[in-house]
Structure formats: structure tokens, C-alpha cells
Amino acid sequence: MAKIDEIQKRLLEEVADLHDVPEGAYNLRANGQTAGRNTTANIDITSKDDGTGIDIHIKPGTKHESVHIPVVLSESGLTEVVYNDFYIGDDADVVIVAGCGISNCGQQDSRHDGIHRFYLGKNSKVKYVEKHYGEGDGNGKRIMNPGTEVYLEENSYMEMEMVQIKGVDSTNRNTKAELSAGAKLVIQERLMTHGAQEAVSGFVVNLNGDDSSANVISRAVARDDSRQTFLAEINGNSRCAGHSECDAIIMDHANISAIPKITANNTDAALIHEAAIGKIAGDQIIKLMTLGLSEAEAEAQIVNGFLK
Amino acid sequence: MAKIDEIQKRLLEEVADLHDVPEGAYNLRANGQTAGRNTTANIDITSKDDGTGIDIHIKPGTKHESVHIPVVLSESGLTEVVYNDFYIGDDADVVIVAGCGISNCGQQDSRHDGIHRFYLGKNSKVKYVEKHYGEGDGNGKRIMNPGTEVYLEENSYMEMEMVQIKGVDSTNRNTKAELSAGAKLVIQERLMTHGAQEAVSGFVVNLNGDDSSANVISRAVARDDSRQTFLAEINGNSRCAGHSECDAIIMDHANISAIPKITANNTDAALIHEAAIGKIAGDQIIKLMTLGLSEAEAEAQIVNGFLK
């Protein structure tokens, strides 16, 4: 893998499970520069003319291919906004892996704001995986504000796995989706905050077409003095089905708010929301402690299971 | 019953199930004037010095007594704001029935804004029933904006039944509660809107004391072109339990939003929210139609059962 150092390699493992150059199409961005790119017969990646990001074009009918677009920042004080647009052709079936890792051992804040737009053609299918990770012992903060927009044409399907497990000091996540007839969206978010971190995660899903459906599931753990706010808005504008769910574990002196909003603008919309916030049940911890774990180990095991 | 006419009598039946002067303490307000009052050895009712409403003092230890404070408006164009304060002594156990009926056959809007404050002493118990009803074929609107504040001292208990079934053109309901240790609050709201009505119902519940708990249950039906917004905010500031639930049936061209908010500011807070919006299931209607009901009759029966 060209032009990247050991720190960047470790970040890549964390955010994209990559030990080497990925198979298929990829675009690797390191410290604000393109550090590697590969295209295939079906998947083209081009830099935008104005240098603000990349366009990814996936041909209609492309099956079982993948695109990796990891970003790593190991330089303290770097701030960037990147726009990546994905055009997925009709009937395609692909996996897209994004992710951002920041290692900040310096004194200045490092910040990556990735704006991803997905245009799914008719009957296409996308599995999208996004992982955010931060590390470094400097005073500079690690900040990520991802913006995601998803446009689903007739009968397309998108599954999104969005994970932020560790080390991101501040994040303001915004995800917006517009669904046409028969389109289906499944979002699974897993978020853990610790220390003095702050996270805001907002979803707006518009079910515009008949028989469209969305399922937004968020699992969150807030530890130490961290603060989390979960916002999920589902608008039923057609004969549709929407479900959102937020399960959160609160620990130490953390603070969690869940603010869902469901609106039926059509009599044939069926919408459900559920949210629960609580601490780990005492009997769960005791059960694991009787098996020989310390209290801290028992808690860690339960949290890992919850976020898996 | 002195000083009230036939229209007002009918309104009283609708909002307070009263066919005659109630037992026990009562204060009847008709077209902006006191039309009758009775006090008992344990329950005193006095007009505020500034004329803005009444103070109700219930002695500590008062058991199995009731207070009725219905309001009726039969004059078109009347607008009033009334402040009623209830001081419930320690260990009391009472029933309080409020309610407002507006008959507006004129061209001008009639509006009653009742602000009720309840101060519950230690270990006291209150059952509160509030019904809102409107009628009349004029173009003047029937508007009610009730504001309710509840302050619950240690180990007190309040059960609130708040019903708005028919005829209120516009309502903005605000209910706020502060709970001390061991206090318990149960709210059951039932709301039906029809025609071009608008209703906003907001709850803010602060669980401040250890072992306090709240259960807010709302059942709503929106018909025709009516619009409803349900807002419920529960803040867990202690070792506490909070639950809110909104079940809504949407019909015709109506529009319903549910926006709950649960916030855990304490690790020992356990908070849950559930909301569901949907239309009446087709098989429920068909079942009743096979028993000989028309589609409209079947719908009415299901709606009545849902709001009962």
C-alpha cells in the first residue's frame, strides 16, 4: 500500500478491517491527499473538478463488487470537508465500505466532515458500512461530522451499518433518506461515547412512495461524563411502514436524550417508535461475576454484547 | 341549580356528568361569572383577591371528599383566562372534577384558558378528571388552552384523566409535573379531533426525587382534516422510572405527529417510550361488518372502544 505510514495502517485496520490493499475498487485518502485508487470495469472513481471529493459511478447490473473509500488523518490540526457522491446503476448489488480514522497526538483539533450522497437506481441493492475511530494522547480534539443523504428509487434497498465505537471527541451525525415506491431502508447504528465526548445523531426518513419502508435501529452506550442525543424523524407520506428504535445504556455520570418523531401524513402510513434508556441490570452483572469476572469485566462484556 | 339555563345544564352533563348540584364542595362558573359555590368543613373555596380565579384549600387528612369546578360558556365571543390553585393537605385522599363546555352558536370565537395548579402534600392522593366539550353551529370557534401544573411532595400520588372528545376547534394543552421522592403520577389522555380541528398536547414531567415514577398514556383519534401533535418529555433526574405511550388512530385526511423525548440525567433513571400511529385494521372492520354493522358503524364502534 503506497504512501501510507504505520499509524495510518493501524487506522485502516480499525475503520475498514484492511490489512492490505482491498480487493476491487478503492480510494484511499490520507492527510487530505489521495494515497491510492483502483477502479474496475464496472466501478469508476473520479476526482471532482473542483477538488472537493470524488464521484463513484457503478454501472447498472454490477453484482457482488465492492468499493472501499477509507480516510485516515494522522496529522494534528488538519480540517477537511469532503463530498463523495455515489451513483448506483439499476439492478446493481454492491458493498460500499467507508470509514474515518483520526490519530491526533498533537495540540490542535483534527476534523473530518464527510458528506456522502447515494443515488440508488431502480431495483439496486447496497450494503453500506461506515466506521469511525479516533486515537491519540494529544490535547487536540478528534472531530467527525458525517452527513449522509440517501435517495432510493423504486424497489431499491439499502442497508446501512454505522459504527462509532471509540475515540471521537465530538460528532454531529446527520442522515437523511428519501424513499420512492417499494424502496426499503435498514439502518443499524452503534454508538459508544466515553470521557467528555459529545455525540448528536439525527435521522430524517421520508417515506414518499407506496409500500416503502424503513427500520432505524440505534444502540448506544454512554460512559463517564459523555453526552448523547438521538433524534429520529420518520415521515409517512404514503402507504408505508416505518419503525424506529433506540436502546441506550447509561453508565457513570453520562447523559442521554432520545427524541424520536413520527408523523403520519397519509392515512395508510403505519409508524412505530420505541425507546428505552437504562443502566445495565444488576442481576446481569452478578451472573457474570459468579462466573469469575470482576465487576468491570462483567460490564465490559455486557456492553460489547449489546453493541455487537 | 341556580342561575343557569338549559344549554348550560346540557354542557354540565357533558363535562361533569352532573344532572343536579354536585355532592360536596363545588364552584360553578357560567359565562365568566360564579353561578354557584359550596364549601365543606374540610374543603374551602375562595375567590382570588384580584378576581382571576379561585383558591381551593383541602385540609390535611381529608378523605373521600370531592370538589367539582365545572365551567360553561354559552355566550358567543367570550374570552377568559382563569387561574385555579389547589392546595391539598398531607394525607388527604380526594377526587377533583374539572371540565369546560362551550356552546357557540354565534359568529365570534369563544375561548376559555384554564390554568390549574395542584400542590399535593406528603402522602396525599388525588384523582383528577377533566373533560372538554364543544358544540354549536355558528362560525365562531370554540377554543380551549388548558395549562396544568402539578407539584407532588414526598410519596404523594396523582391520577389524571384528561378527555377531549368532541367539538373543540383549537386546543393547546400543556401539562407540567414536578415529582419529589416516592411520588407517583399517572396520566391518561384521550383526544379525538374532527373537521378542521387542531390539537397540540404537551407534557413535561420531571422525576426529581428517588423512587418517583410517571406513566403518561395518550390515546388519540384524528378524523376528517384534523391535525394533532403529541409532545411528551420525561426527564429522569434521580433513581426513577418513567414510561410514556402514545397510540393514535388516523382516519380520512387527518395528520398526526408524536414527538416524545426521554432524557436520563441520572444513571439510575429507567425511561421508556412507545408510540404507534396507524389506521384501523381492515380485518377488525370486516369482523364487525359480518355481525351486521355498516362500515361507518363498525369504525365508530372501534373508535369508541379505543377511547373508552
UniProtKB/TrEMBL annotation, chains A, B:
<dbReference type="InterPro" id="IPR000825">
    <property type="entry name" value="SUF_FeS_clus_asmbl_SufBD_core"/>
</dbReference>
<dbReference type="GO" id="GO:0016226">
    <property type="term" value="P:iron-sulfur cluster assembly"/>
</dbReference>
<dbReference type="InterPro" id="IPR037284">
    <property type="entry name" value="SUF_FeS_clus_asmbl_SufBD_sf"/>
</dbReference>
<feature type="domain" description="SUF system FeS cluster assembly SufBD core">
    <location>
        <begin position="88"/>
        <end position="306"/>
    </location>
</feature>
<dbReference type="InterPro" id="IPR055346">
    <property type="entry name" value="Fe-S_cluster_assembly_SufBD"/>
</dbReference>
<protein>
    <recommendedName>
        <fullName>SUF system FeS cluster assembly SufBD core domain-containing protein</fullName>
    </recommendedName>
</protein>
<dbReference type="Pfam" id="PF01458">
    <property type="entry name" value="SUFBD_core"/>
</dbReference>
<comment type="similarity">
    <text>Belongs to the iron-sulfur cluster assembly SufBD family.</text>
</comment>
